[in-house]
Amino acid sequence: MRIRPLLACATLAMLALPALAANPKGHGETDLGLSGFFALTQSATGNFVTHTTPNWYGGTVELRHVSSPLMGFEAAYSIVGPHNDTWSTTAPLTPPGFPCTPACSFTPAATTVQTFDQTFSVDWVPSMKVGNLRPFAVLGIGALLATPDNGQVTVAIPSSAGSAPVENYFSLSSVVTAAYVYGAGVDWQILHRAGIRLQYRGEMYKDPDVAASLFPATGAFVQTAEPTIGIYFGL
Which listed residue, 74, 126, 129, 188, has the most CB atoms within 10 A of its CB? Predict the structure, then answer.
């Protein structure tokens, strides 16, 4: 189920190639796009761990060049603002290097870490100019960087009966993972060299585990949907 939107986008792009190749209006155009989006991210579950990411806001910058209907490319950068990710588990954990004081294994309470995500990608953008509209598709690959706002998290570890929990610190680290970008949209030309850009962008990537020192990686693939609205300027 997780890969169906990606496969559907790729199939539609391949089916559209003959129509795009027949369009004689393509010519060299370069523009800078600035957009905002609402990110909706799936939760990830694996190895008895669940990682939940709240829906949040972000922005995208795209430098795009279209020389013909089939020859369109862009370099894109997007960022999702700081948001509180939560890791939880139903199984006892034995974190790597954790001393057996007061216990070797324990089941931590749900742990929240504030993170922000950045994605860098290079995308193929086939398009077709129809009057003041330019429908387009997006298919590319890049890297997602998940960064915690702090270098460690404090976790209360149950102690012996009648004793107060013992606090322990677990390190957090930035994680880079491959990201596959797909989507479609339309540019609506309002002025001679500027207009409105409406698009749906999606990202698929392996769940980044910034809390790997405490929670094992889920190993799951995750999708983020990004309904997007913005503007573009011709360069």
Answer: 126
At 52 the three-state DSSP class reads: strand
Q: pLDDT for 134-173, tens place per residue?
A: 999 999 999 999 999 988 998 887 776 666 777 888 899 9
CATH number, domain 4-23+51-90+108-234: 2.40.160
Q: What is the mean pLDDT of the segment spanning 100-108?
A: 75
User: How far is Cα 114 from Cα 80, in angstroms, rounded to an integer?
Assistant: 12
- pLDDT on residue 27: 59
Whole-angstrom distance between the N-terminal and C-terminal Cα of the chain?
40
Residues contacting residue 75 through CB under 8 Å, at least 6 positions apart: 62, 63, 120, 121, 122, 123
Find all residues with CB under 8 Å of 162, minimum gap 6, and list them. none
DSSP-derived secondary structure letter, 68: S
Instruction: Give the SS3 label for residue 23.
Output: coil
Query: Count of residues for the chain?
Result: 235
Q: Which two tokens stand for residue 193?
A: 């060299």
Strand partners, 155: 168
Distances (CA, A) of 140 to 77, 153, 184, 203: 12, 35, 12, 10
All structural domains of the chain with their residue ranges: 4-23+51-90+108-234
Classify residue 111 as exposed, middle or buried by CB count within 10 Å of its CB (0-12, 13-18, 19+).
middle
Residue 117 near residue 142 (C-beta atoms within 8 A): no
158: its two tokens:
């149950």
